[in-house]
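input
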Amino acid sequence: MLTTDRLILRAPRTTDLDAMFATYSDPRAMRYWSTLPHDDPSVTQALLNRQIADFAQAPLYFALERDGQWIGNAGLYRNPEVGFMLSPDHWGQGLVPEAMETLIPHLFAHGLGHLTADVDPRNTGSIKVLRALGFYKTHEAANTFLIGGEWFDSVYFRRDP
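output
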């Protein structure tokens, strides 16, 4: 477990399901994600089960808790790629940068030589966060994700220790 001024970064829990489903089924939250919004809690349950199992092996992708409630996830999504998801109810409050400022040293302390991020170029909020955290753009690619019949592009970022 890690903490910030406003957040607890902890292991995912089975009790996170309802709050997670509310976010992962929200088209606003999923607009730039790599899958369609979840249309059934069983989809979110499968994701949560993977997160719980992965965290048990390597505590690197955390649930974000505020005021006793799950509000998102952040951390090492795929080695060495970081990712974050935040409930739209908590956007615009600086919570992702706050979480990532605590997480990045934690990730580097686990021996990672660098971190990367893959972002839809239209996701200006996430790009702004990554740049503020010291990530720099390495390249772009077209048609990297086919989601719901629509192609999405990617812009790639990197951060060194």
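quick obs: Helices lie at 17-24, 27-30, 41-57, 95-109, 124-132.
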